[in-house]
Design a protein that fits this description.
The protein has 172 residues and is α+β, with helices and mostly antiparallel strands. Helices cover 19% and strands 40% of the residues.
Length: 172
């Protein structure tokens, strides 16, 4: 009986080790950083103190995000005397001297994003917060995002090994 069990075990081992199933789908390449810019954005009114801009990622990056990617959004807030852009990370709260507050923030999924500004005042009275906006999106693998100073746009671009000519630009 032991010899029969040993024989079946050897036959089973040979049979199962030589089986080969169908080839699986190709794996994803290692994730790499990417960036795109959207210019001339006019946020849409939700209420008098809430405006937003919502879109899918697919037109900008050719598909959806992977689950282990992180999105950073920067808003162009100014230009230096030499003409260099000043990028401010969103979310951002601005407190005004009169007590008013404006909050820029964003939400994203693997398919889409929403940029919102909510204020304690009627945003139509301060259109520089809602009209002709420029946003830069930097998409990073989550392991890289965990180790970089996200508040510094230049540090993020350096860590991501992205240059200005690698940024996809879209005008509205």
């Amino acid at each position: 009986m032991k010899k029969i069990l040993t024989l079946f075990a050897v036959i089973g081992l040979v049979a199962f080790s030589s089986c080969e199933g169908p080839e699986g789908p190709p794996g994803q390449d290692g994730l790499s950083a990417q960036a795109f810019e959207i210019k001339n954005v006019n946020l849409a009114r939700v209420t008098s103190n809430h405006y937003e801009y919502a879109r899918d990622f697919a037109p900008y990056i050719g598909g959806n995000l992977y689950n282990d990617e992180v999105v950073l959004v920067y808003r162009l807030t100014d230009l230096t005397n030499s003409g260099a852009p000043v990028w401010q990370l969103i979310p951002k709260t601005t407190n005004y001297d009169n007590g008013d507050v404006a909050d820029y923030f964003f939400d994203f999924s693997t398919k889409d994003f929403i940029i919102s500004v909510i204020a304690s005042f009627d945003l139509a009275t301060q259109t520089d917060l809602i009209n002709s906006q420029t946003f830069r999106f930097v998409i990073l693998p989550s392991n890289l995002a965990a180790s970089v100073n996200k508040n510094s746009y230049l540090d993020v671009m350096k860590a991501a090994k992205l240059s200005e000519n690698q940024i996809g630009k879209v005008n509205f």
